[in-house]
Specification:
10 strands, binds iron/sulfur cluster
């Protein structure tokens, strides 16, 4: 281990930065980088994105003013941000195969296991404690999706990757299936070189693959059309024009990442917390739709799915069932929810039943053809 400082000496920031990176690896992060806090370019991008209304109901994206783009306004005294990357794709989990099985529910692969926030925050807190033991008390705060933080912009500045045309942060050796976390600090650490190159080239596979056409320009996503937004952030009815395109995606969507050529570099996560629970990587739509509210609360405890609540869970599954091939089991599952005490759920169930009836009629018509 490099000696950062002798007792009473001013800490050597270069040695500390190296030590922090070694600690990051020891804590299980795949990558760690350090940036300054100048996000002026991204502030302009965010202003344009908000002005276009692309954030939809996500009022929290607009409500913090410049705290999101000026880290020192969020945490006074912040000079540097330590960004970390943690890969999440569990080993032996199917992705595109499940998307091709319309009777099976597709849950975004970051959400089939336990929630990542606690795990990452704990590790960032440990990192801060180790730093404190080395250099004495210093100012810091750890974030994992928990505050207005431009996590991808900071990670790009810290050298962790570039912005793909799908607006995700892409790493040339790891793809984009990873979580990001940040430690804001007042230590004047040396910064890493930002990731300047763009490896997308002439590829636009993500834009073509988006089921709802949500990537309106390179690196610009209209969240209002994005299936992740529709199934997780949106509180009300899912606009009918998007329902068919949602297919079997009932919580989030990974399509723009799965088609990306860099996704083949994804390394399976070794984190036990991210292993799928309750068959959420392979369960049928009918099986999940049959969960009672008690089962939902019990099985999604400690899962990112919990935050959408039972009614929106049923709403999303109803859309998936409407898109599934006709079967008696699917129709019966929908009929069983037709009187569910929520206007939101009932409206989506009626829509799904109408779709199922159309499919049944089509099957009957085909069977009668000579
Ligand atoms: S699919 Fe192609 S264009 Fe989209 S992020 Fe990946 S490399 Fe870039």
């Amino acid at each position: 281990m490099t000696a950062v400082s002798a007792p009473g000496d001013t800490p050597d920031m270069n040695a500390l930065a190296e030590q922090i990176k070694a600690w990051g690896r020891e804590l299980g992060f795949q990558q760690l980088g350090i940036s300054d806090v100048d996000l002026a370019d991204h502030e302009r991008y965010l202003e344009r994105w908000l002005a276009a209304g692309y954030h939809g109901e996500m009022g929290f994206m607009a409500k913090h003013g410049t705290k999101r783009t000026r880290p020192a306004e969020l945490v006074p005294g912040t000079l540097r941000v330590i960004s970390v990357r943690l890969d999440y794709l569990p080993a032996e989990v199917e992705t595109t195969k499940v998307l091709g099985q319309p009777q099976t529910a597709y849950v975004s692969r970051y959400a089939t296991g336990r929630d990542y926030h606690k795990l990452m925050r704990k590790r960032l807190a440990t990192l801060a404690k180790w730093m404190e033991a080395e250099v004495g008390a210093f100012g810091y705060r750890a974030f994992v999706d928990s505050a207005p933080v431009m996590e991808r912009a900071l990670a790009r500045k810290a050298g962790l990757g570039w912005f793909g045309k799908n607006a995700m942060l892409l790493n040339p050796r790891a793809g984009s299936l990873f979580f990001l976390g940040e430690l804001y600090t007042d230590l004047p650490l040396p910064v890493d070189a930002p990731f300047e190159s763009d490896h997308c080239g002439s590829c636009s596979a993500c834009r073509s693959a988006c089921p709802t056409g949500a990537i309106v320009e390179d690196r610009v996503v209209d969240a209002r059309a994005c299936i992740s937004y529709l199934t997780i952030e949106l509180h009300g009815a899912i606009p009918e024009r998007y329902r068919e395109a949602m297919g079997n995606r009932v919580f989030g969507c990974d399509d723009c990442q799965l088609v990306c050529p860099f996704t083949r570099f994804t390394r399976a996560s070794r984190e036990a917390d991210f292993a799928p629970r309750h068959d959420l990587d392979r369960a049928s739509l009918v099986a999940l739709f049959a969960w009672s509210e008690e089962e939902f609360l019990e099985k999604t405890a400690g899962s990112p799915i919990r935050r959408i609540g039972y009614a929106r869970w049923l709403r999303n599954l109803a859309v998936g069932l409407g898109n599934a091939p006709w079967s008696e089991a699917v129709e019966a599952a929908l009929w069983a929810r037709l009187a569910y005490p929520s206007d939101l759920v009932r409206e989506h169930v009626r829509w799904a039943l109408a779709r199922q009836r159309e499919k049944r009629q089509e099957l009957i018509a085909v069977s009668r053809k000579p």
